[in-house]
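Quick one, tokens below. Sequence please?
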């Protein structure tokens, strides 16, 4: 599983093992905006069982190849970090209108 960690900083970011990351072509950036904020990306590879995704409503796995669709799931972990996880999801689960909050409001 490939991960991309994004870091935003007001100044040059002190990245642990920076030289090793640059040598292995795992460090991206910085991209600097007009305000001087810097965006860095660090790529890494993990086995699927090494990744602990924050507790959130997890999209169901597809029931068949025809039900499969790529999607992005978002969650905030206890430390306040936002996770965006791209994964294969169930099209029928995503299309279930009863899952959408706007359809569960009282009228």
């Amino acid at each position: 599983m490939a991960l991309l960690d994004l870091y935003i900083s007001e100044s040059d970011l002190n990245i642990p093992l920076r030289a090793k990351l640059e040598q292995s072509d795992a460090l991206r950036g910085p991209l600097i905006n007009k305000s001087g904020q810097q965006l860095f990306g660090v790529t890494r590879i993990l086995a699927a069982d090494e990744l602990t995704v924050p507790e959130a409503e997890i999209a169901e796995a597809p029931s068949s190849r025809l039900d499969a669709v790529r999607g992005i799931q978002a969650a905030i972990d206890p430390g306040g970090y936002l996770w965006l996880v791209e994964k294969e999801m169930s099209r029928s689960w995503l299309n279930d209108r009863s899952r959408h909050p706007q359809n569960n409001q009282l009228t």
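The beta strands are 2-9, 27-32, 38-45, 68-76, 82-90. The helical segments are 18-23, 91-95.
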